[in-house]
Amino acid sequence: MIPNIRFTPLAGMLLVFLAACGTAAVPRTLPGTEPLDWPQLEHADMADRLMDGAHRYVDRRIEAAITRRERHWNRDVSGGRAAYEASIAANRAEFSRLIGVVDERAPVVMERFGDDENPPLVAEREVYHVYQVRWPVLPGGGGVRGEGLLVEPRGASAGYAVVLPDADQTPEQVMGLAEGIAPASRLARQLAERGFTVVIPTLVNRQPLDLAGLDISAEALRRLGRRNDQTHREWLYRQSYHMGRHIIGYEVQKVLAAVDWLKQRGGPGVKVGVAGLGEGGLIAFHAAAVETAVDAALVSGYFNSRERTWTEPLYRNIWSLLDRFGDAELATLIAPRGLVIEHSAADEVTGHKGEIRTPAFEAVQHEFERIDSFLPRGFQPRTLVHGEAGAPIGPGSAQALAAFVTMLGVADGNIADIGNTVELIEDRRKAFDPSVRHRRQVQQIEEHVQRLVRRSVDARNGFYGHKVMPALADTTWSTVVRHDTHPPESFAEASRRYRAYFHEEVQGRFDDELLPPNPRTRLFHESERWTGYDVVLDVFPDLVAWGVLVLPRDLQPGERRPVVVVQHGRNGLPENLVVKDHGSYRRVAARLAERGFIAFVPHNLYRAEARYRPLNRKANTVKATLYSFLVHQHDQILRWLNTLEFVDGPRIAFYGNSFGGETALRVPPVLEGYALSICASYFNQWTRKVAGTDYPFSYLFTDEWEVPVFNAGHTFDHSELAYLMVPRPFMVERGHHDHVAHDEWVAHEYARVRRLYAMLGLADRTAIEFFQGGHGMRLEGTLDFLHKHLAWPVPETDD
Description:
Elements: H1 11-21, E1 34-35, H2 43-68, H3 80-87, H4 89-98, E2 111-112, E3 121-124, E4 128-138, E5 144-153, E6 159-164, H5 171-175, H6 187-193, E7 196-201, H7 218-226, H8 232-241, H9 247-266, E8 272-277, H10 279-290, E9 296-300, H11 321-324, H12 327-334, E10 338-342, H13 361-370, E11 382-385, H14 398-407, H15 415-418, H16 434-454, H17 456-468, H18 488-494, H19 496-506, E12 520-526, E13 530-540, E14 543-552, E15 561-567, H20 588-594, E16 598-602, H21 609-621, H22 626-641, E17 647-657, H23 659-666, E18 676-680, H24 686-691, H25 718-723, E19 730-735, H26 743-759, E20 766-771, H27 781-789
Parallel strand pairs: 1-12, 6-7, 6-8, 8-9, 9-10, 10-11, 15-16, 15-17, 17-18, 18-19, 19-20
Antiparallel strand pairs: 2-4, 3-4, 4-5, 5-7, 12-13, 13-14, 14-16
Helix pairs in contact: 2-21, 8-16, 9-10, 10-12
């Protein structure tokens, strides 16, 4: 709610202002405010200035994260391993959640499989056999399975390890069955020659998406084919992230299932290590961080400072990572188990909504040395391996391997000699195609995510709606028509914690205190019936709110009127809703002022994809989204509007179109200062829209890669966001020809809202208007809704 703040009365200035509004002498500055000192810019330039400040603000948040994250930690290094692991257990559980390691794994068996053309026994040497294998990881449907190679020594095993190639490498390459990797870097082969039992999983590659392998509609396939700039890793990331899963998590689960099997294989007390190169190093590092059964980790070509993780490929985006974790903090999740970091050259990647480059040794060394500030010397065996004067080495150098096997309790042996084995091992398979195996890996993860999408409504019901109001779950068939209603007050009160959860854990928020608004204004435009002012308000250092205040000229001294905050969509500007002849917006703010409402038209940050998408990525790293900025901007706008003597604070409505319609679902539910909310051209089944592959208008088939919200699919769809509005009025505008979604999707999702409002005795507070039209604001039934719920009379001349 808007706090009860006392302000110096501006009655004298207001009377002068109101008198001037009836003449041509309109003040250049809104009385009670300072002149806006920005240059006389076009609205597009003002939007750029706003964006610049938002970037500076979040850059500082990222810079400060390295010190702020210690509030989450309380490491106990005084009481042995059990006490230490108990002290970091909550952080381990949180990191597991953030990378999507949340599903119970299936009992693991290692299946050797093949046929006459591609036999199970792939190769054999004097000291070991190589088999093609697969193993169950996650149950359900066809399930998710790991697949790759198993190396078994002919005699007793010297040690046990899971070895992960880089994403664009195959198990065969790191085993020396295929060309493509320098002999000294065939990590799996080097361990095999040393007598280790080794499992080598296949990773999803970062090559362009193989459209032939997708189980989606023909129209969706056509749309995707027109703009196929996604990789396999991005494709799986984009759909799984919204469902609280991650391509990283799926691959960590495969590794951990293999570790489970090796533990069984080796018997009591056996030590198992994980080692990886590049993307495989990332997976190995994260697997060791979340599972204490991993006894040592070798991470080659990945460890670094993560403050610029937002510049890495999109599929590495992890929600709120820097709020709690850098690589040094993750290393402490592995402690007191062993860790080897090898500073090796990265397989450089560009054009993946980010890039991978070999970091400077100084950055790697600094991050490694940060571990010393958390753990006493000797608490964790760890080493940083590098070349002369900090040059990259390896991957799979003799020094790194020697340290790794020593941490597993194995004498290092003559690793240097083994690494020089040049010749390839003969592969007995006659028709093996690694792309077919890879396609299976992609399809299995995709199907697992799509099962989550299909079942998500049940998960959301159990999370919120049915938990708060069990009567919503009553689907018992009965011929008795029920007329009883439930008290809305109890539902609204119980929803408070869900509103807070959405604000803090799903959408994200900043914890800075709002600055004094320091309003600055400048005359923007005037007509015979209204006057518009550009208004700039301070929010946080560098972050401001800007919009246009549209005032009817017939305001009377002492009169207080309702306000409609009218929000543009993607790539829009405030002027589109006031003076521009734009088909989607139809000068809605000016038309509302002509009917006697005060209108305020904020500029939202979703303009210029090349600017707001990186802003969202940056924000994700510190537990925020693009809408986190918007919530705080709107909070300041509401506070300022409540200081104006001609504004009736309890009667402030929100009306947004397209991405502004999304704002109508994500801001008013959080800010109770909005008396009602109207969503135009956006309301639908959000989970299917963002993460589903079954219809062509899914965001998966567009370039809007920033839209997934971590785990929203299991917590809040559009109906649940509307639930958060109770008991305030909520309305939807829907054009039959709006390609956002089908009418059926919109009607189905809205029916859930309508049912709840009716069961709470609030059926007159919600409405949907279907109309013959497309993607835009209707402002017909909406006017009736506004006049009714803002208690503002319809003018005698209804134009």
